Protein backbone atom coordinates (compact mmCIF):
# COMPACT_ATOMS: atom_id res chain seq x y z
CA UNK A 1 0.00 0.00 0.00
CA UNK A 2 2.85 2.38 0.83
CA UNK A 3 4.47 1.84 -2.59
CA UNK A 4 1.12 2.33 -4.33
CA UNK A 5 0.56 5.62 -2.49
CA UNK A 6 4.09 6.81 -3.35
CA UNK A 7 3.58 5.97 -7.04
CA UNK A 8 0.20 7.74 -7.04
CA UNK A 9 1.67 10.87 -5.44
CA UNK A 10 4.60 11.13 -7.88
CA UNK A 11 2.82 10.21 -11.11
CA UNK A 12 2.33 13.82 -12.31
CA UNK A 13 5.38 16.01 -12.76
CA UNK A 14 5.68 19.71 -13.53
CA UNK A 15 8.77 21.72 -14.42
CA UNK A 16 8.89 24.96 -12.43
CA UNK A 17 11.18 27.99 -12.55
CA UNK A 18 12.31 30.16 -9.60
CA UNK A 19 9.38 32.23 -8.31
CA UNK A 20 6.73 30.05 -9.94
CA UNK A 21 3.71 29.01 -7.88
CA UNK A 22 3.98 25.41 -6.68
CA UNK A 23 0.70 25.19 -4.76
CA UNK A 24 -1.93 27.22 -2.94
CA UNK A 25 -2.94 24.21 -0.85
CA UNK A 26 -1.85 23.67 2.73
CA UNK A 27 0.86 21.01 2.61
CA UNK A 28 4.02 20.02 4.41
CA UNK A 29 6.87 22.26 3.28
CA UNK A 30 9.82 20.48 1.70
CA UNK A 31 13.04 21.64 0.08
CA UNK A 32 13.71 24.35 -2.52
CA UNK A 33 10.45 26.23 -1.93
CA UNK A 34 9.40 29.32 0.02
CA UNK A 35 6.08 30.57 1.41
CA UNK A 36 4.65 34.01 0.66
CA UNK A 37 1.18 35.03 1.87
CA UNK A 38 0.20 31.41 2.36
CA UNK A 39 1.25 30.30 -1.13
CA UNK A 40 4.25 28.07 -1.90
CA UNK A 41 6.73 29.06 -4.62
CA UNK A 42 9.80 27.43 -6.17
CA UNK A 43 13.23 28.83 -5.36
CA UNK A 44 15.02 26.70 -8.01
CA UNK A 45 14.57 25.38 -11.53
CA UNK A 46 13.30 21.87 -11.04
CA UNK A 47 10.44 19.40 -10.85
CA UNK A 48 7.41 19.63 -8.58
CA UNK A 49 4.87 16.87 -7.97
CA UNK A 50 1.37 18.42 -7.78
CA UNK A 51 -0.21 15.30 -6.28
CA UNK A 52 2.35 14.91 -3.49
CA UNK A 53 1.43 15.58 0.13
CA UNK A 54 4.64 17.64 0.47
CA UNK A 55 5.29 20.90 -1.41
CA UNK A 56 8.86 20.67 -2.67
CA UNK A 57 11.03 21.00 -5.78
CA UNK A 58 13.69 18.57 -7.01
CA UNK A 59 16.43 20.72 -8.61
CA UNK A 60 17.34 19.90 -12.20
CA UNK A 61 20.95 21.05 -11.81
CA UNK A 62 23.42 18.18 -11.95
CA UNK A 63 20.88 15.52 -12.85
CA UNK A 64 21.04 13.38 -15.98
CA UNK A 65 18.51 13.72 -18.80
CA UNK A 66 18.14 10.30 -20.49
CA UNK A 67 19.26 10.02 -24.11
CA UNK A 68 18.58 7.15 -26.49
CA UNK A 69 21.54 4.75 -26.94
CA UNK A 70 23.41 6.20 -23.94
CA UNK A 71 25.44 3.76 -21.85
CA UNK A 72 24.48 4.24 -18.21
CA UNK A 73 25.34 2.80 -14.81
CA UNK A 74 22.31 2.27 -12.60
CA UNK A 75 21.21 0.96 -9.21
CA UNK A 76 18.04 -1.07 -8.70
CA UNK A 77 15.72 0.95 -6.47
CA UNK A 78 12.48 -1.06 -6.54
CA UNK A 79 10.50 -3.59 -8.54
CA UNK A 80 7.01 -4.18 -9.87
CA UNK A 81 5.32 -7.40 -10.97
CA UNK A 82 7.15 -7.53 -14.30
CA UNK A 83 9.95 -4.96 -14.15
CA UNK A 84 12.73 -3.45 -12.09
CA UNK A 85 12.85 0.30 -11.39
CA UNK A 86 16.35 1.70 -11.83
CA UNK A 87 17.92 4.82 -10.34
CA UNK A 88 20.07 6.36 -13.09
CA UNK A 89 20.92 9.67 -11.37
CA UNK A 90 17.89 11.29 -12.98
CA UNK A 91 14.61 12.74 -11.81
CA UNK A 92 12.94 10.35 -14.25
CA UNK A 93 12.26 6.65 -13.78
CA UNK A 94 13.95 3.93 -15.83
CA UNK A 95 12.79 0.36 -16.21
CA UNK A 96 14.17 -3.11 -16.95
CA UNK A 97 11.84 -5.89 -18.03
CA UNK A 98 12.36 -8.93 -15.80
CA UNK A 99 12.32 -11.09 -18.92
CA UNK A 100 15.47 -9.34 -20.19
CA UNK A 101 17.79 -10.38 -17.32
CA UNK A 102 19.04 -13.81 -16.32
CA UNK A 103 19.73 -12.97 -12.69
CA UNK A 104 17.18 -11.99 -10.09
CA UNK A 105 18.01 -8.42 -9.11
CA UNK A 106 17.61 -6.90 -5.68
CA UNK A 107 17.40 -3.37 -4.37
CA UNK A 108 20.95 -2.01 -4.45
CA UNK A 109 22.13 -4.21 -7.34
CA UNK A 110 24.48 -2.33 -9.69
CA UNK A 111 24.00 -2.66 -13.44
CA UNK A 112 25.04 -1.09 -16.71
CA UNK A 113 22.66 -0.78 -19.63
CA UNK A 114 21.88 0.96 -22.89
CA UNK A 115 18.90 3.30 -23.03
CA UNK A 116 16.63 1.67 -25.60
CA UNK A 117 13.83 4.20 -25.65
CA UNK A 118 12.82 7.47 -23.98
CA UNK A 119 9.13 8.36 -23.86
CA UNK A 120 7.41 11.75 -23.91
CA UNK A 121 7.91 12.26 -20.15
CA UNK A 122 11.59 11.20 -20.29
CA UNK A 123 11.09 7.80 -18.66
CA UNK A 124 13.51 5.28 -20.18
CA UNK A 125 13.47 1.59 -21.05
CA UNK A 126 16.82 -0.18 -20.73
CA UNK A 127 18.41 -3.05 -22.68
CA UNK A 128 21.75 -4.93 -22.91
CA UNK A 129 21.78 -5.31 -19.15
CA UNK A 130 25.03 -6.23 -17.43
CA UNK A 131 24.98 -7.03 -13.71
CA UNK A 132 27.99 -6.17 -11.54
CA UNK A 133 28.99 -8.05 -8.41
CA UNK A 134 31.00 -5.92 -6.02
CA UNK A 135 32.77 -2.70 -6.86
CA UNK A 136 31.84 0.89 -6.12
CA UNK A 137 29.91 3.67 -7.81
CA UNK A 138 31.69 7.03 -8.07
CA UNK A 139 29.46 10.03 -8.78
CA UNK A 140 30.55 12.81 -11.13
CA UNK A 141 28.73 15.61 -12.93
CA UNK A 142 27.19 14.22 -16.15
CA UNK A 143 28.62 17.17 -18.09
CA UNK A 144 32.15 16.06 -17.11
CA UNK A 145 31.75 12.53 -18.49
CA UNK A 146 33.19 13.30 -21.97
CA UNK A 147 36.39 14.55 -20.31
CA UNK A 148 36.64 11.41 -18.16
CA UNK A 149 36.35 9.26 -21.29
CA UNK A 150 38.59 11.47 -23.43
CA UNK A 151 39.03 11.59 -27.19
CA UNK A 152 38.77 8.04 -28.55
CA UNK A 153 38.86 6.78 -24.96
CA UNK A 154 42.30 8.25 -24.27
CA UNK A 155 41.60 9.48 -20.73
CA UNK A 156 39.79 6.27 -19.83
CA UNK A 157 42.82 4.24 -20.93
CA UNK A 158 45.13 6.43 -18.82
CA UNK A 159 42.93 5.85 -15.77
CA UNK A 160 42.77 2.09 -16.29
CA UNK A 161 46.48 1.66 -17.03
CA UNK A 162 47.65 3.69 -14.05
CA UNK A 163 45.20 2.53 -11.39
CA UNK A 164 44.58 -1.08 -12.40
CA UNK A 165 40.84 -0.55 -11.95
CA UNK A 166 38.12 -2.07 -14.08
CA UNK A 167 35.87 0.83 -15.13
CA UNK A 168 32.53 1.48 -16.75
CA UNK A 169 31.76 5.18 -17.22
CA UNK A 170 28.05 5.92 -17.56
CA UNK A 171 26.81 8.95 -19.47
CA UNK A 172 24.59 9.59 -16.47
CA UNK A 173 27.56 10.57 -14.30
CA UNK A 174 27.99 7.29 -12.44
CA UNK A 175 31.26 5.38 -12.76
CA UNK A 176 31.44 1.74 -11.70
CA UNK A 177 34.91 0.71 -10.53
CA UNK A 178 36.37 -2.48 -9.11
CA UNK A 179 39.82 -3.76 -8.15
CA UNK A 180 43.03 -1.77 -8.47
CA UNK A 181 43.79 1.42 -6.55
CA UNK A 182 40.33 2.93 -6.05
CA UNK A 183 41.62 5.75 -3.89
CA UNK A 184 44.02 6.89 -6.59
CA UNK A 185 41.26 6.60 -9.19
CA UNK A 186 38.97 8.90 -7.20
CA UNK A 187 41.78 11.46 -6.84
CA UNK A 188 42.33 11.44 -10.60
CA UNK A 189 38.62 11.77 -11.38
CA UNK A 190 38.29 14.73 -9.02
CA UNK A 191 41.29 16.33 -10.73
CA UNK A 192 39.59 15.89 -14.12
CA UNK A 193 36.41 17.50 -12.76
CA UNK A 194 38.29 20.51 -11.37
CA UNK A 195 40.44 21.10 -14.45
CA UNK A 196 38.10 19.95 -17.23
CA UNK A 197 38.35 23.41 -18.84
CA UNK A 198 42.12 23.10 -19.39
CA UNK A 199 43.89 21.87 -22.51
CA UNK A 200 46.32 18.91 -22.58
CA UNK A 201 44.40 17.42 -19.66
CA UNK A 202 45.13 13.78 -20.51
CA UNK A 203 48.89 14.31 -20.23
CA UNK A 204 48.46 16.25 -16.98
CA UNK A 205 46.38 13.47 -15.44
CA UNK A 206 48.86 10.83 -16.55
CA UNK A 207 51.73 12.81 -14.99
CA UNK A 208 49.71 13.22 -11.78
CA UNK A 209 49.05 9.48 -11.57
CA UNK A 210 52.70 8.59 -12.15
CA UNK A 211 53.78 11.07 -9.47
CA UNK A 212 51.26 9.65 -7.02
CA UNK A 213 52.42 6.10 -7.65
CA UNK A 214 56.01 7.21 -7.21
CA UNK A 215 55.17 8.71 -3.82
CA UNK A 216 53.67 5.46 -2.62
CA UNK A 217 56.91 3.64 -3.36
CA UNK A 218 59.02 5.92 -1.14
TrEMBL record:
The keyword RNA-binding belongs to this UniProt entry's keyword annotation: yes
GO cellular component terms, A-Z: exosome (RNase complex)
InterPro entries registered for this protein in UniProt: Exosome_RNA_bind1/RRP40/RRP4, KH_dom_type_1, KH_dom_type_1_sf, NA-bd_OB-fold, RRP4_N
GO molecular function: RNA binding
The protein, known as: Exosome complex component Rrp4
Domain K Homology: 137-179
Gene3D superfamilies referenced in this protein's UniProt entry, alphabetically: 2.40.50.100, K Homology domain, type 1, Nucleic acid-binding proteins
Domain Exosome RNA binding protein RRP4 N-terminal: 14-60
Pfam family, one: ECR1_N_2
Listed GO biological process terms: CUT catabolic process; exonucleolytic trimming to generate mature 3'-end of 5.8S rRNA from tricistronic rRNA transcript (SSU-rRNA, 5.8S rRNA, LSU-rRNA); poly(A)-dependent snoRNA 3'-end processing; U4 snRNA 3'-end processing
Keywords assigned by UniProt, alphabetized: Exosome, RNA-binding
Organism of origin: Candidatus Iainarchaeum sp
Keyword RNA-binding: yes
